[in-house]
């Protein structure tokens, strides 16, 4: 199950966030900050799946924007990776220059 | 009041803020404007304001005052209003807010709206945040929509149904008839969401699962064949621009179907058989050059592993995983390692083939991959590859990140214990771990190691020498220093005498040894526990070393005034030992006997062998060295697993059992240690029972004088076997049977062997017979002792087998003994 979907830029500013489970509003910012910290500390040739607390993060970087999806154990990580790309392609088609 | 700014403007303004404080200020200003606008009940701009509010909410600012406005928007007739209203409802309202129930009526009306887009909105919102009451009320509407022919609505209705089922599981049956036709659609959207719905139903309810699996009237409506057909179409069909992702047709749907097949096929032979072909087809036909193909293959592998597939298919799956491991892409390797970890239990041999690749992954830069590779390597270690694997793992331990070291060290210890090819190798490995990752080793490893070292008697000299050399250089790693000080204390004499066969013996003087132990004591880096170890070691050396006793006395007396209470107590006691009880010192500080490894299944009240590392504190702990092994012998026989363990032969000094026992008793009785000197050895007679039972000179079992009648177990061909019984005082489940075999014929019986077997609930132990020749004419007997453990107090039965040579021919006989007297086993 997808727990959350985030688009965060390199400075840590949230551009889009969608939570599919209830998370307290003040905890959200903390979560986002930690997640982006984890993602920024990875280098280019490391794998895109991070284990964070009790779920996995799948992240993908597009220029200065990180798209991060939090999933639980039942999901296929690689399918979610594809989903992220699909989503970005859809946004690209719909809004022209993304 | 000027028209409120648009959302885009707001976003642009917020982005110009350079600091967090500036941003907060802007947002507060805007919030105030929005609030006043809400108060004015301004219909035209309401949707704009709510949109801005939602954006601010996403950034993390409170927006609860917009909830009612969302409701007003939902109730409006304009589509743009409804759209924002429903979005706001999804983000801001959930079960915890009271106002959400007010939406129910709106949603109901909208579900029956003429425009499909409005209906769609309502379905989305219900599916996102509907509470159980709302779901119960509106489930009927959703079900109706599930049956429409409009595919746009159908797919949304299916997802909404998933949410309803999650919230109110009892309503699952309501959706069952509607699912019959769901998979007949052409539209991929509907197919996808239907598969999700079916998956959810099957996961939630085993009844549903059984229902979907069973054979129905029309074979075309069976679920598994339908899914197989859809999957086949997806793979076989040509290029379809609508669904194409990098050359593969709708991979998301393929993955979903594979997952549903997995759930259907788990533990079910028929379904698994039906899907074998398609799985093989997917596995072989999917292109692996892009991530998409690999995602599908990964799901396929997971499915193959989970269902009852045939072995050929399983091998195919593991080979795919092996290929993944060789791929350059990190994601794929990570995924492969994760799946291999899941399958290593069931398909161990197949995974072994890829061992070298897995071991290479240990050297990867990526943390996630390293962790997976480490776990997998531990799962793969077995008797054959332990040397090679251990080398790699030790190298890994050297170079890995600190977060791994503790886990890796524990894993290495476990593996070494299970598969060590030789004692020397085992000790070398442990030494290596202690020196490289000494400070990360878990605390419970230290007693285990010590016990292991005592068990390998022939390696003592070698071990103590290596440990000594290790701490000479560096004594900061606590577990290493603890083990080393313990060993030096025990085997210091071997160290100084320089007798070591395995390695170059080093020349060490007693003073040098004491130097190192003293520096451990003094050092700031040593923990309190470590200092305790060192002090005890120094004390033990007072009996092993000959020329430095005075130095030891001095050290011990210095610590008598230490601030650390534990050290002070020890030092004071040792001092007393020197002054008043000097004659007991050698007995007390004797070398530790070999500790038996206690099986972990046994009862836990046994004298813990690990506790023997600290023998010195007399008051608080059970009596040390000489007494404990015999206690163990008693307790070992209590253990259920006791039949394989021979009772430990106590090595406590036999020279003065009586007096040592007596004086120990007095010490124990005399709590202050300042009491009057013990002159005469106190009589051993009226004593605390636990101590006496342990002393060497005592028989371990007492007969009960009013004995149990003995029986004749066997009497044939001149051979007569009598059983006499004794019951143990300390343990009522143990019966000791003494057999006496006599021969009334005129020729001797030679090579007599007596064997016995008892039912499974009993345990039997046969001690050695007095001889193997039974002389003729009843002139002598063979005596043998059997110990039977009968914890469940069942009736004793025994089958015996006798083999002997008589009159030049070999004789053999089997008999059953059933006439045991009740007192022998009750």
From TrEMBL, chain A:
Ranges for domain AP complex mu/sigma subunit: 1-98
Domain of life: Eukaryota
InterPro entries, per database record: AP_complex_ssu, AP_mu_sigma_su, Longin-like_dom_sf
A single BP term in Gene Ontology: intracellular protein transport
Cellular localisation: Endomembrane system
Membrane protein topology class: Peripheral membrane protein
GO CC annotation terms, alphabetical: cytoplasm; endomembrane system
Location (main, coarse): membrane
UniProtKB keywords: Membrane, Protein transport, Transport
Assembly information from the UniProt record: Adaptor protein complex 4 (AP-4) is a heterotetramer composed of two large adaptins (epsilon-type subunit AP4E1 and beta-type subunit AP4B1), a medium adaptin (mu-type subunit AP4M1) and a small adaptin (sigma-type AP4S1).
Biological role stated in the UniProt entry: Component of the adaptor protein complex 4 (AP-4). Adaptor protein complexes are vesicle coat components involved both in vesicle formation and cargo selection. They control the vesicular transport of proteins in different trafficking pathways. AP-4 forms a non clathrin-associated coat on vesicles departing the trans-Golgi network (TGN) and may be involved in the targeting of proteins from the trans-Golgi network (TGN) to the endosomal-lysosomal system.
Family membership: Belongs to the adaptor complexes small subunit family.
Database matches in PANTHER family: ADAPTOR COMPLEXES SMALL SUBUNIT FAMILY
Protein name per UniProt: AP complex subunit sigma
Upper lineage: Eukaryota, Metazoa, Chordata, Craniata, Vertebrata
TrEMBL record, chain B:
GO cellular component terms given for this protein: AP-1 adaptor complex; clathrin-coated pit; perinuclear region of cytoplasm
Organism: Pitta sordida
Function: Subunit of clathrin-associated adaptor protein complex 1 that plays a role in protein sorting in the late-Golgi/trans-Golgi network (TGN) and/or endosomes. The AP complexes mediate both the recruitment of clathrin to membranes and the recognition of sorting signals within the cytosolic tails of transmembrane cargo molecules.
One Pfam family recorded for the sequence: Alpha_adaptinC2
Record membrane topology: Peripheral membrane protein
InterPro entries: Adaptor_Complx_Large_Subunit, AP1_complex_gsu, ARM-like, ARM-type_fold, Clathrin/coatomer_adapt-like_N, Clathrin_a/b/g-adaptin_app_Ig, Clathrin_app_Ig-like_sf, GAE_dom
Gene it is expressed from: Ap1g1
SUPFAM superfamilies for this protein: ARM repeat, Clathrin adaptor appendage domain
GO biological process: intracellular protein transport; vesicle-mediated transport
Keywords on record: Coated pit, Cytoplasm, Cytoplasmic vesicle, Golgi apparatus, Membrane, Protein transport, Transport
Cell compartment(s), UniProt: Cytoplasm, Perinuclear region; Cytoplasmic vesicle, Clathrin-coated vesicle membrane; Golgi apparatus; Membrane, Coated pit
Start and end residues of each GAE domain: 706-821
UniProt similarity note: Belongs to the adaptor complexes large subunit family.
PANTHER family per UniProt: ADAPTIN, ALPHA/GAMMA/EPSILON
Region Disordered, annotated ranges: 605-626
Keyword flag Cytoplasm: yes
Name of the protein: AP-1 complex subunit gamma-1
Keyword Lipid metabolism part of the UniProt annotation: no
């Amino acid at each position: 199950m997808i727990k959350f979907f985030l688009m965060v830029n390199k400075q840590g500013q949230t551009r889009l966030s969608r939570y599919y489970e209830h998370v307290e509003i003040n905890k959200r910012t903390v979560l986002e900050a930690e997640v982006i910290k984890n993602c920024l500390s990875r280098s280019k040739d490391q794998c895109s799946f991070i284990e964070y607390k009790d779920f996995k993060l799948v992240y993908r970087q597009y220029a200065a924007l990180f798209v991060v999806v939090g999933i639980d154990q039942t999901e296929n990580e690689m399918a979610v990776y594809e989903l992220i790309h699909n989503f970005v392609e859809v946004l690209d088609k719909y809004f022209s220059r993304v | 009041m000027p028209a409120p700014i648009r959302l885009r403007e707001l976003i642009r303004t917020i982005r110009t803020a350079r600091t967090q404080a500036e941003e907060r200020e802007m947002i507060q200003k805007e919030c105030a404007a929005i609030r006043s606008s809400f108060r004015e009940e301004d219909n035209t701009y309401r949707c704009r304001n709510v949109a801005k509010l939602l954006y601010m909410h996403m950034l993390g600012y409170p927006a609860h005052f917009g909830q009612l406005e969302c409701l007003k928007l939902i109730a409006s007739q304009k589509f743009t209003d409804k759209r924002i209203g429903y979005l706001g409802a999804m983000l801001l309202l959930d079960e915890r807010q009271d106002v959400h129930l007010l939406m129910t009526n709106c949603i109901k009306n909208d579900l029956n709206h003429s425009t499909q887009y409005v209906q769609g909105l309502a379905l989305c919102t219900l599916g996102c945040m509907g509470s159980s009451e709302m779901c119960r009320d509106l489930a009927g509407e959703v079900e109706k929509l599930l049956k429409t022919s409009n595919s746009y609505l159908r797919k949304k209705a299916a997802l909404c149904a998933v949410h309803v089922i999650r919230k109110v599981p009892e309503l699952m049956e309501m959706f069952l008839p509607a699912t019959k036709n769901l998979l007949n659609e052409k539209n991929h959207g509907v197919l996808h969401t239907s598969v999700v719905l079916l998956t959810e139903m099957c996961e939630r309810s085993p009844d549903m699962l059984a229902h979907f699996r069973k054979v129905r009237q029309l074979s075309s409506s069976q679920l598994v064949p339908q899914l197989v057909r859809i999957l086949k179409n997806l793979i076989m069909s040509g290029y379809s621009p609508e669904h194409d992702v990098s050359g593969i047709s709708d991979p998301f749907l393929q993955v979903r179907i594979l997952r549903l097949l997995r759930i259907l096929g788990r533990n079910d032979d028929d379904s698994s058989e039906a899907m074998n072909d398609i799985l093989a087809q997917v596995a072989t036909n999917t292109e692996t050059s892009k991530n998409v193909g690999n995602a599908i293959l990964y799901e396929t592998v997971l499915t193959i592993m989970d269902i009852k597939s045939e072995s050929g298919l399983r091998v195919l799956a593991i080979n795919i995983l092996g290929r993944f491991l060789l791929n350059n892409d990190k994601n794929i390797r990570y995924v492969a390692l994760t799946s291999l970890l899941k399958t290593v239990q069931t398909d161990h041999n197949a995974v072994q083939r890829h061992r070298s690749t897995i071991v290479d992954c240990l050297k990867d830069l990526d943390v996630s991959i390293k962790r997976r590779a480490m776990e997998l390597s531990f799962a793969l270690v077995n008797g054959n590859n332990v040397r090679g694997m251990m080398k790699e793992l030790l190298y890994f331990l050297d170079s890995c990140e600190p977060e791994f070291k503790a886990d890796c060290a524990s894993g290495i210890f476990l593996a070494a214990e299970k598969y060590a090819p030789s004692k020397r190798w085992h000790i070398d490995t442990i030494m290596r771990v202690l020196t490289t990752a000494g400070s990360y080793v878990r605390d419970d490893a230290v007693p285990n190691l010590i016990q292991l070292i005592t068990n390998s008697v022939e390696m003592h000299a070698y071990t103590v020498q290596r440990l000594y050399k290790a701490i000479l250089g560096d004594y900061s790693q606590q577990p290493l220093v603890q083990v080393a000080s313990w060993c030096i204390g025990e085997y210091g004499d071997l160290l100084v005498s320089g007798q070591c066969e395995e390695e170059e013996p080093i020349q060490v003087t007693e003073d040098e040894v004491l130097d190192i132990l003293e520096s451990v004591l003094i050092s700031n880096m040593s923990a309190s526990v470590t200092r305790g170890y060192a002090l005890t070691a120094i004390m033990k050396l007072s009996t092993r070393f000959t020329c430095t006793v005075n130095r030891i006395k001095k050290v011990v007396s210095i610590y008598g005034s230490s601030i650390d209470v534990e050290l002070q107590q020890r030092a004071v006691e040792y001092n007393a030992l020197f002054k008043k009880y000097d004659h007991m010192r050698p007995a007390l500080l004797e070398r530790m006997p070999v500790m038996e490894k206690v099986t972990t299944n046994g009862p836990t009240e046994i004298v813990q062998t690990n506790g023997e590392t600290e023998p010195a504190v007399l008051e608080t702990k059970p009596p040390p060295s000489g007494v404990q092994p015999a206690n163990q012998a008693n307790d070992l026989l209590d253990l259920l697993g006791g039949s394989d363990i021979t009772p430990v032969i106590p090595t406590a000094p036999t020279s003065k059992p009586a007096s040592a026992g007596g004086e120990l008793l007095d010490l124990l009785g005399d709590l202050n240690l300042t009491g009057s000197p013990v002159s005469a050895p106190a009589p051993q007679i009226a004593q605390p029972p636990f101590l006496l039972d342990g002393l060497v000179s005592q028989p371990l079992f007492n007969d009960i004088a009013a004995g149990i009648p003995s029986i004749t177990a066997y009497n044939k061909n001149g051979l007569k076997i009598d059983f006499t019984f004794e019951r143990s005082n300390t343990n009522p489940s143990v019966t000791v049977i003494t057999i006496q075999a006599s021969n009334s014929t005129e020729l001797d019986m030679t090579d007599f062997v007596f064997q016995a077997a008892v039912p499974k609930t009993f345990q039997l132990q046969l001690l050695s017979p007095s001889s193997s020749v039974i002389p003729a004419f009843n002139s002598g007997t063979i005596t043998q002792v059997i110990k039977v453990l009968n914890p469940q107090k069942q009736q004793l039965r025994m089958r015996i087998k006798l083999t002997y040579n008589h009159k030049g021919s070999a004789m053999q006989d089997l008999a059953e003994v059933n006439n045991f007297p009740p007192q022998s086993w009750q």
